[in-house]
Specification:
Elements (H helix, E strand, L loop, with lengths): L10 H13 L6 H14 L6 E4 L2 H10 L8 E5 L4 H9 L3 E5 L10 H7 L4 E7 L8 H11 L2 E5 L7 E2 L2 E2 L6 E5 L12 E5 L2 H11 L31 H32 L5 E2 L8 E2 L5 E5 L4 H10 L5 E2 L21 H7 L2 E4 L7 H24 L9
Length: 392
């Protein structure tokens, strides 16, 4: 099977885990702190502004928690994303307001965000889709003008840049995910960045049960006055996952370079193929992490192509429904939101295998199978006398 994603872990990561076992300190300790410091250095920031969490989802919930949302407060986010983003807002009493995206880049432009803003907007949650930074510069500038908090979901964009500046450093808050489908993996885990020092200190406090004084290995404390200014949760990362993450961060340049090579080959060899629309070129000054490679197909043949590739043991995925089409248990039937580009993209988008474990032969196999399937499916439609409107 040629997998859609595949974590790149080996002897170095195993040795790092063995070191944790040897020390018998598996909780949050010196390796966690070292990983936070190394990640902050990667971002060009001070270590005190980042906190390693148990998952990208917990980092997201923690970031939203610091907004102190009140009933009726709104957070604007793209409809083309994972349910976790909307869930984090709703769980803190806010109202997710979905905006449209560019149908080809799958990122919202400033105009898409502005169309969703109201006088109740407290924050914008921007997703760097697939590893592309998108229109983050203009959106960040507009949020500053309006005094709106900007959060960045940089789960796919650990090495994405605009004019040398890393995604995740443009806003007030940012989160990364290190789950097995990402670029840097720790088994599970996430990172949160807070620009404001007081907010950064609060995120660390909340991630550690709200306790001012830590306990455990290296943190012996004497009995004293209660030091629980705010209820929190135990959602910090641990030394096992931090040890893996530190090795992965060191290997990040080589892993991203291979991803970019594969994405560039897909672009080069699939561009201009009848029935296939490849992603648009990156704007000048932009660098993508290439976490996800997607293309867009005629919706009449898209699902058939996915089935054909699976039959050849090539794992691809189509896109789940946009968030404005979801309905949570107990919710009233949502109105049909006018987000035509999201709906257009979801009907056509397919993700191809992309990870450093792919050999050149694997990539060639994917390209050949895709071309054959699309050609065959389109020919079958023509033979049946059928045409498709609004093709890619």
């Amino acid at each position: 099977m040629i997998n859609l994603f595949q974590p790149q872990v080996g002897a170095e990561e195993l040795d790092a885990v063995a070191g944790v076992f040897h020390d018998r300190r598996l909780g949050s300790g010196r390796r966690t702190k070292a990983f936070e410091t190394a990640f902050a250095e990667h971002l060009g920031l001070e270590a005190g502004h980042v906190v390693f969490t148990s998952s990208g989802t917990t980092a997201l919930h923690l970031a939203v928690e610091t907004l102190d949302l009140r009933p009726g407060d709104e957070v604007v986010l793209p409809s083309l994303g994972l349910p976790a983003t909307a869930e984090a807002v709703a769980a803190r009493g806010g109202r997710p307001v979905f905006c449209d995206v560019d149908r080809h880049t799958l990122n919202p432009n400033l105009e898409d965000v502005e169309a969703a803003l109201t006088d109740r907007t407290r924050a914008v949650l921007f997703l760097h889709y697939g590893g592309r930074a998108g229109d983050i510069v203009r959106i960040a500038a507009r949020c500053r003008e309006l005094g709106i908090t900007l959060m960045e979901d940089a789960a796919c964009s650990i090495a994405s840049r605009v004019d040398g500046r890393l995604a995740g450093t443009f806003g007030d808050l940012a989160v990364w995910s290190f789950d097995p489908g990402r670029v840097l993996v720790t088994g599970d885990g996430g990172m949160l960045y807070a620009k404001d020092p007081e907010r950064a200190a609060r995120t660390r406090l909340l991630a550690r049960h709200g306790l001012v004084r830590a306990s455990g290995f290296g943190h012996a404390t004497l009995p004293g006055e209660p030091d629980l200014p705010e209820y929190g949760r135990g959602i910090t990362g641990n030394d096992l996952t931090a040890a893996i993450g530190t090795v992965q961060l060191r290997r990040l340049p080589e892993m991203v370079e291979r991803r970019r090579e594969i994405a560039a080959r897909y672009d080069r060899e699939l561009a201009g193929t009848e029935g296939i629309l490849t992603p648009p070129p990156l704007p000048e000054g932009h660098e993508s992490t290439d976490c996800v490679y997607w293309l867009q197909l005629d919706p009449a043949v898209r699902d058939g192509v996915v089935a054909d590739l699976l039959a050849e043991e090539i794992y691809t995925t189509s896109h789940h429904a946009p968030l404005h089409r979801f309905q949570a248990d107990g919710d009233e039937e949502p109105p049909a939101a006018p987000l035509p580009s999201c709906d257009w993209a979801v009907a056509r988008t397919v993700r191809l295998p992309l990870h450093p474990g792919l050999s050149d032969g694997d990539v060639a196999t994917v390209i050949d199978a895709l071309r054959r399937s699309v050609r065959s499916r389109l020919a079958a439609r023509t033979d049946e006398g059928l045409t498709v409107k609004d093709t890619p």
